[in-house]
Write a structure and sequence with these properties.
The chain has 294 residues and is α/β, with parallel strands linked by helices. The protein has ten helices and twelve strands.
Length: 294
């Protein structure tokens, strides 16, 4: 399997490249933002040539900044995805597009199915939905949209590493307890994406939307307590609060729990429970790992 990973310098991209590089049956091309500007249609086309699979982990991820410059965010998360999809269509290449729970309204009370109606509450979500629609339109038989949420990992800034940093600086941490979601370890998502790519090339996985989040659900408050406990710190230092306490430029969905029915259709197991994945990512026990968060 010849794989092009765009956004290879990011949190998920680095995990993907590391995983694929250790599997000699696969050949991976790692393209960081400095090496490949996916908003350049010609560059995107040239990069796709010679690959069986493209995993697009490149994205505008600053949610609040997207609210202030939606056209720029949409260029990266929408138009650029169209460039990659067009190139993949020309060369018979499959595309795995990383998307987000933010394309959904966040007002549900049960997990969102993969075919649930979309209705983003902010500019970032709208920009990512533009990318999803480009994949669906241009690659109806070879396009895969994998929505993830609450992603954390060893590379780059994220909620888990922020909690550990703040725990070293403060006696107590006030964390919102009125947003529900599925903390998802980038290492676990990388494994799931590789499995999906293999199943896609083998003809076992139908194109369309998949939900790449860990099983179960919790709140940011619950996640913060679990992070501290796994690092031998007192979880009682975390205090629950409401989203109203933290003013943000962009609205956040209150409910980001996703359903995982389509993995079974592809013959693949769903991703692990969020707490089990967190233990694997954070536990000091076991051999050293480039994915471990310390």
């Amino acid at each position: 399997m010849r794989v092009l990973v765009t956004g290879a310098g990011g949190m998920l991209g680095r995990d993907l490249v590391g995983l694929l590089a250790n599997q000699p049956e696969h050949k991976v091309t790692a393209a960081t933002r400095n090496e490949l500007d996916i908003t350049d249609a010609a560059a995107a086309h040239d990069a796709v040539v010679g690959h069986d699979i493209v995993v697009n982990a490149a994205a505008w991820t600053d949610v609040d900044a997207a609210e202030q410059d939606e056209p720029a965010a949409t260029t990266v998360n929408g138009a650029a995805v169209g460039h990659l999809a067009t190139a993949c269509a020309r060369h018979g290449t499959r595309l795995l597009q990383i998307s987000t729970d933010y394309v959904l309204p966040g007002d549900a009370t049960v997990p969102y199915r993969e075919d649930a109606p979309t209705s983003p509450v902010n500019a970032y979500g709208r920009s990512k939905l533009t990318g999803e629609r480009a994949v669906t339109r241009l690659l109806p038989d070879a396009g895969y949209v994998v929505r993830t949420a609450w992603l954390y990992g060893a590379h780059g800034h994220n909620f888990v590493s922020t909690m550990l940093r703040l725990a070293d600086q403060r006696e107590t941490l006030d964390v919102v307890d009125d947003q529900r979601g599925q903390p998802t370890w980038s290492g676990a998502l990388a494994r799931q994406l590789v499995a999906l790519a293999e199943a896609a090339l083998a003809g076992r996985a139908a194109p369309g939307v998949y939900h790449g989040t860990c099983a179960g659900e919790t709140t940011w408050y619950g996640l913060a307590r679990a992070v501290l406990a796994l690092h031998g710190l007192d979880p009682e230092r975390v205090r629950p609060t409401s989203s109203a306490r933290f003013r943000r430029t962009a609205a956040r969905p209150a409910y980001s729990v996703l359903g995982h029915d389509r993995w079974a259709e592809a013959g693949l197991p769903p991703m692990p429970d969020w707490h089990a994945a967190l233990v694997a990512a954070c536990s000091p026990e076991g051999p050293p790992s480039p994915w471990r968060i310390t």
